[in-house]
Amino acid sequence: MVNRTLINGILLFCACGFLLLPTSGHSQLASAITKYKDVRLSSERLNKIARYNGLIEYFSGFTFFQPRHKVSPDFIRALILAESDANPGAISSKNARGLGQIIPSTGIEAGIALSNGTVDFRNVSRKRLGNLSAEDLFDPEVNILLTCYLIAKYNYKFNGQLHLVLSAWNAGENIKELKQGQHAPYQETLDLIGKVNGYYLYLLQQRKTHVAHTPQKRG
Fold first, then answer.
1. Which of 3, 22, 117, 171 has its CA 20 to 30 A from that of 34?
2. pLDDT tens track of the chain, all 219 residues?
């Protein structure tokens, strides 16, 4: 059974395994986690995100910053559901766009970094990545690639601490709180941390249950 609390250090599938971050002393964070700790995802919402399973599995399979360290596809699913409810045409009041709700300036900067790298991606050329526009963020292939890259970047920068990774995602990676090892103080950020954590734990449990009930092939 997955412990339904805030998970720290499990954005990556790696040898270090799963760690838990206690929420004592972080009353606002604990409240946000508690609010969504028993969340359930409807079949309708699971079907929405399932449309993008192929792209999520593909782009989360790359090691962007550390060898053998890959972003969890279930974390990407949880983030997309929390941010856009798997709507590729979503746009926020702050002009964040697409499935992962990426701000154009952040997406364009990430695209340039990827275009200057050594990896070639299926159906998303380096030339396109180096010349992204805001409208490109509505393309699921582009958006999911950028989402995986940025989460990998923040995961590496903040040592896999979910509350810090999502603070960077929602409020910017250079805010003063993050430099002090603290999560962003905004209610929007806290709600996002709670939602993503709850959705992620639910998806992990569903995966575990599916594996447990899948008949094993005999040789």
1. 171
2. 444 555 554 444 332 323 334 444 468 888 888 899 889 999 999 999 999 999 999 999 999 998 878 899 999 999 999 999 999 999 999 999 999 999 999 999 999 999 999 999 999 999 999 999 999 999 999 999 999 999 999 999 998 899 999 999 999 999 999 999 999 999 999 999 999 999 999 999 988 776 555 566 655
Tokens for 44, please give them.
Answer: 């309708």
Length of the chain as a residue count: 219
Pick the CATH number of 7-210 from 3.40.50.12780, 3.40.50.720, 1.10.530.10, 1.10.3720.10: 1.10.530.10
